[in-house]
Amino acid sequence: MNTSSRIDKSEEDVLASKNRYQKVVITDTAIDKIPRIEYKGFSSEVNDALYRLTRLVLLSSQKNNDSNEVAITCSLAQDDPSENFGIAYGEEHSVDVLADTTSNHLIMSSTECVVIVLHNHPTTQTLSIEDLRFFLHYATVKVISVVSNQGTVHYLMKTDKYEYSAANSLYNDCIAGLEKQSNKKDIYLASLSFLSRCSEVGLFYS
Length: 206
Hints:
Blueprint: H1 9-16, H2 28-32, H3 44-64, E1 70-75, E2 86-89, H4 101-109, E3 115-121, H5 129-137, E4 141-148, E5 153-158, H6 164-175, H7 184-197, E6 203-205
Parallel strand pairs: 3-4
Antiparallel strand pairs: 1-2, 1-3, 4-5, 5-6
Helix pairs in contact: 5-6, 6-7
């Protein structure tokens, strides 16, 4: 379902919850409930590969990283993106994708917009301001996907109509007024504002 024009129910629940910023510990049930997403314009084989990698994100976080952030980076330049990928282990609220050698190579050496970054969020349900900044900065990243520690998946994709300058301008509009001291709710609302308008600049959010 395309949610580019509104905040969906899961995001409203996060904002309403008193515990919205507390880390959720990943359970086997959460991993089992991860949906197989039909990424816009991707083949069934690629969608199958991304489903396997999304499960691997939560499994790796659960088993190896105390339910903190994990990022898997792969490329559409391969017939099966799950055959060669990078994995980076982060903290509760951040992960340095480029710290992993393979991930760095895929992002920095690709000559086309073909890279996919899949990661988890221990707290909020959808993409953060930091995710959006990263996504816009690297021209080779076509999709950034986030799976919550409860198994909900959202993704943002650059379409053929994507315009960097317009997207960057929208991003700056959405973060206007934010400061380092801004509270978490205001920062999160800024990211939701961007996502609600992203179709205006050639991005697809689901």
